[in-house]
Amino acid sequence: MIKLQINGMAVEVAPGTSVYEAAKKVSVKIPVLCKHPDLDHTAACGICVVRNKQNGRMLRACSTPADNGMDLSTEDPEIVQTRRSVLELMLSKHPNECLTCHRNQNCELQTLAADFNIHREVLDNITPEIPVDESTKAVTLDARKCISCGRCIQVCQENQNVWALSFVDRGIKTRIAAAGDIPLAESPCVRCGQCSAHCPTGAIVEYDESEATWELLRNPDLYCVVQIAPAVRVAIGEAFGFPAGTNLTGKTYAALRRMGFKAVFDTNFGADLTIIEEGTEFIQRFAHGKGELPLITSCCPAWVDFMEKYHTDMMPHFSTCKSPHEMVGALAKTYYAEKNKIDPKKIRVISIMPCTAKKFEIQRSEDMSSSGTQDVDISLTTRELARMIKQSGIDYQTIPESQPDHVLGAYTGAGTIFGATGGVMEAALRTAVHLITGEKLAKVEFEQTRGLQGVKEAKLMVAGQEVRIAVAHGLGNVETVIKKIREAKAKGEPLPYHFVEVMACPGGCVGGGGQPYGVTDELRLKRAKGLYSEDTAGIWRNSHDNPYIQELYRDFLDKPLSEKSHHLLHTHYKSRPTYQR
Amino acid sequence: MSTTETKAPAAKPAGTPPDAISLIAKRWKNKRGSLIMALHDVQETFGYVPREVALKLAPQLGVPVARIYEVVTFYNYFKLEAPGRHVISVCMGTACYLKGAPEIKERLMAHFGIKSGETTPDKEWHLQDVRCIGCCGLAPVVTVNSKIIAKVKPADIVTAVTALYTPKEG
Lengths: 581, 170
Prior knowledge:
The complex is a heterodimer of chains A (581) and B (170).
Chain A: E1 2-6, E2 9-13, H1 19-24, E3 49-52, E4 58-60, E5 71-73, H2 77-92, H3 108-115, E6 139-141, H4 151-159, E7 165-168, E8 175-178, H5 194-198, E9 204-206, H6 210-218, E10 223-228, H7 249-258, E11 263-266, H8 267-288, E12 295-296, H9 301-310, H10 324-340, E13 347-353, H11 357-361, E14 378-381, H12 382-391, H13 413-416, H14 423-437, E15 455-462, E16 465-473, H15 478-491, E17 499-503, H16 521-537, H17 547-557, H18 563-569
Parallel strand pairs in A: 1-5, 10-11, 10-13, 12-17, 13-14, 16-17
Antiparallel strand pairs in A: 1-2, 3-4, 3-5, 6-9, 7-8, 15-16
Helix pairs in contact in A: 8-10, 8-14
Chain B: H1 2-7, H2 20-28, H3 35-46, H4 51-61, H5 65-74, E1 86-91, H6 94-98, H7 101-112, E2 125-130, E3 142-144, E4 147-149, H8 157-162
Helix pairs in contact in B: 2-3, 2-4
C-alpha cells in the first residue's frame, strides 16, 4: 500500500491509484472537467492541479499516481487562482449562452464557474464561428461550446471503436469534427450518442424533438400513442431526484397520459414479441440448419449501423427481427388500429427511448414503414421526456401510478431485462430452451449473461446439446467476438458461439446515449438492478407466457415467422459506406 | 479559369500510377509510428494529401481516416488542398525575420492577392511561411519550388519570384 498525506491527513491507497482518487478517500473533492470514470485520464483541462508541498510544484491530480511519502495540498490561494484562470480561459472561448443552452443547470462547466465565483468575463471572448451540425438528426454538435476535454473523442474512438469524431487543427483552432470537417451524418458515426452522454458541456446533445412532439399532441385530428423502453423506467427518476434504479413505470405512464397521449404502450411488450420471433429464428438455425450460425441480435440500432458499416460479412448472421419499439410501432398502426377501429392514418407513434440511435433507426429503410406510413413517427430520449414532464407542470414526485393500455402494454420480466447487457440473451434463452426441450424451466435465471464484464461467454447444455453464447456491450468489445467467429469460419473449425448478443452502449440500454447525464458503472449497475428486481417480482417471467402475445398470434399474426410477421416485424440489411465523401 | 484548374498536373491523383498508394502502404505498414512518414510519401507523390488518397490509404495501413486527418491538420507541413505549381516559401526564421522577411511576405501577398497558406485561383502560385530552412547566412531567403532566392531586398522580391515562372508543359 502507498502512504501519503493530503491536506495534512494520512491516506493509504493501492499502488497505481491517482492523487485524484486518493483525495476522495479523505473527503476531498478535486474539480475535474476532462477526467471521467469511464475513460483514461488525458490531463487535458488542467483544473485538477494540486501542490506538492515538498518542492512547491503544482501537478495534475488526475494523471499523477499517488506515491509513498507524498505531502500534498489541494487548497491554497494560488491553487484556487490557477483553477479559476483555467476556467476563465475556457469561458473566453465559450459562448455566453447558458440560458438558451440544452445543458442549462446541467452543465459541468457552468457548475464549476458558479462554484468558483466567476461573475464577470475578464478576458475578451473569442468564441469561433462554427456552424451547428444537426445532420445526423440524432445528436447535435455545437463545436463552439467544446472545451477540448477530449472525452467524446476518447469514447468514440477507443471505447466505441467508431472513429467518427476527432480533433482537427491545433492550438486555439482545435475543434471537434468528423475527419475533414464533413457533416457527422456522412462520417462513420453510428449515432450511439455516447459522445453526448460524456460531454461535460452543451457541445454534443441529443437532437431535440420535443417541440415536434408537442405539435402532434396539440393536433386534435391526430391520435397520439406512446411507448416506453425498458431502460427508461429505471433512469428517468434521476432527473427528478429519485435514487438511480428506482422503477418508475407507473408514474411515467401517468405523466404521459396527462401530456395528452391517447394510449400508453410498453416497449417491453415489443421485447417479448422480439423474443418469440428471434427465439424461433434461433431454433430454425440451431435445430433445423436453416440459416447461418451464430445468430446475432439486432435490437440495437447503433450496432446494426456499425455492422452495416464495418462488419458486412456478418449480415447473414444477423437476426432479421426489428427492434422492439419498431415492432410496437408497426402493430400500433395495424393490429391496435384494427381492434379499436381507429383510422391508422391518424395514429402517431412516439417512442421514449434511452437512445439517440433510435432517432435514426425510425427512418433507416423502407422496412420501417411496414404499416403503410412510418411505423414510429418520433423517437425521444429519456432526457427529452424528463424536460417535457417538467414543462407540463406535472408533479412527478406525487403523481399516482397508472397502468398501460392493452393490447400492446402487458409484458413479462423477460421483456423488462432487455434494457441491461445480457438481458436479450437471457430472455431469449428462457424461451428457446423451453421451445427446444418442450419443458417448463425450473430456473429462469441465466446469471452468466449478467454484469458489466465487456465480453461474457458461456456454455449451456440444452437437451443434450451444447449451446455456446457470447454477450458483448460497448462497441469496442465487439471486435474480439467477431474475430473469433471469422477465424473459425475461415478455418472450418467448430463455431465459437451459436448465439451472440451485442448492445452498442456500455452496460446496454441502461447506459444508453439518451439517458440522464452523469453515467458511471455504479449507476449502470443500479439501473440494471432496478430491471432485474422488476423481473423477479413479476408473475410472468418468460415471453411465451405473455397472454397478450398469445392473443396477438391467435388473432392477427398467425404464427412466429409467418408471412405477416415477416412483413411487419422483420427487416433487411445492406452495406453502408463508412464515409459518404 | 476552370480549364486551367482541371489541367493542373500535380493536383490530380489520377495522373499518377494507380498503385502508388499501395506502394506507400506496403512500405510503412506494420511499422509502429510510421503514419507521418507515409503521409510524407503521399505529399511527395501527389503534392498534397488528397481526400481520395487518405480514404484509400487508411484501410491499407490499418489506420482510421480520422487519425490521418488528426495528423494532417495538426502539422502545418501537410496540405489538404492542391498547392499551386510554384510553391513560394518565405523563411520566417530569426535571421530572415530580422532581415526583412515580414515585408517580403507582405509584398508577395499584395502582388498575388493571397494570404500566406493560400493558392492563387489559377493554381499557379502558392505562398507559405516556413520556419528556419537552415541557411541563415543567405538571409533573407525565399524558395520557389527547389530554387533559392538569397539575400533579397523586399523591393526586388516580386521580380525575382516571377522570373522563376516556368510555363506549363504541353
